[in-house]
Amino acid sequence: MESPKSLIPSFLYSSSSSPRSFLLDQVLNSNSNAAFASSNLEKSPSPAPRSSSSAMLSRKNFLIASPTEPGKGIEMYSPAFYAACTFGGILSCGLTHMTVTPLDLVKCNMQIDPAKYKSISSGFGILLKEQGVKGFFRGWVPTLLGYSAQGACKFGFYEYFKKTYSDLAGPEYTAKYKTLIYLAGSASAEIIADVALCPFEAVKVRVQTQPGFARGMSDGFPKFIKSEGFGGLYKGLGPLWGRQIPYTMMKFASFETIVEMIYKYAIPNPKSECSKGLQLGVSFAGGYVAGVFCAIVSHPADNLVSFLNNAKGATVGDAVKKIGMVGLFTRGLPLRIVMIGTLTGAQWGLYDAFKVFVGLPTTGGVAPAPAAIAAAAEVKA
């Protein structure tokens, strides 16, 4: 029987071990009252003496040991680190969105035809009567493919941009304006992620809201192109950015803040002393609360995306006129809150579970401290 680690690409594990794995100890113990700056690094359990040779090592070369392979690990901010985050994003977004396809199906139909689909319960009843149980998962293939692509870019580029912007800002400003770093990093990542998602989202909405249009991705994609051309696949990109960029900014910035507050006020022990199970529970809880905020912020644009991808030749003005301003903010909102809250909580739980599996720390929970960041910068210099 294969070991669980065999399911993960071997390039996600470093094949070397060196004194670099002790660098975090040196940074942490350069100032006994300071916490390490990066929200992705945890305290080492024991200090290590400084030496002239180790002082020349770069902070980015810190190694975190894999739980299944002692002595080996992934270098933080190395290509393998970003590859692991990208793969974790594929799992967390693709699988969770596919799982909630029935909720998404009802939501889209409530947004497109509220006269027929008046409520969540009646919506499920109508779909069951007209299409059977199988109909609840119509559009699951474009959902899986589209949100896997989006998740890869969203999480992978978020980690990259967060590190890049932190380096540009410098230690003092990173600690002072950490929320702005989270917002800028997540917005930058989502711009790229939505370009990957948009064609799949267009086909998904058409398949889900126009029975008989297509069975799924294989026949829906060519039919969509034949009907509206390749440009039609990106007709909803503007509204998609309008929905997803605020959503993702709220998703990442509020998650980082909520998790930090949980460890600070609700859990008596530091994050480094908490079990991995407890840390993953915090990730899910923080993700769920963040998801509620995400749903409210992004809901008007979600209505626009559904309308535009369903109606050939429609414009944003047509959508606003048809749905109304109040309808943009309220139509299908309760179901979206339930769906997005659960979805976001599950995504953060899966993402951090994968990070733990390959030997990385869970996301967030350690507030940047200027003194510790400055000490790390000195070591890097």
From TrEMBL:
Cellular localisation: Mitochondrion inner membrane
InterPro entries, alphabetized: MCP_dom_sf, MCP_transmembrane, SLC25A3/Pic2/Mir1-like
Record Gene3D superfamilies: Mitochondrial carrier domain (1.50.40.10)
GO biological process: mitochondrial phosphate ion transmembrane transport; response to salt stress
Signal peptide range in chain numbering: none
SUPFAM superfamilies listed in its UniProt record: Mitochondrial carrier
Membrane topology: Multi-pass membrane protein
Keyword set includes Cell membrane: no
Keywords from the named record: Membrane, Mitochondrion, Mitochondrion inner membrane, Repeat, Transit peptide, Transmembrane, Transmembrane helix, Transport
Molecular functions (GO terms): mRNA binding; phosphate transmembrane transporter activity
Example of a GO cellular component annotation carried by this entry: mitochondrial inner membrane
Solcar repeat residue numbers: 80-164, 177-261, 278-357
Claim: Membrane is one of the keywords in the record: yes
Family: Belongs to the mitochondrial carrier (TC 2.A.29) family.
Database matches in PANTHER family: SOLUTE CARRIER FAMILY 25 (MITOCHONDRIAL CARRIER PHOSPHATE CARRIER), MEMBER 3, LIKE-RELATED-RELATED, SOLUTE CARRIER FAMILY 25 MEMBER 3
Function: Transport of phosphate groups from the cytosol to the mitochondrial matrix. Mediates salt stress tolerance through an ATP-dependent pathway and via modulation of the gibberellin metabolism.
Protein name, per record: Mitochondrial phosphate carrier protein
Record organism: Arabis alpina (Alpine rock-cress)
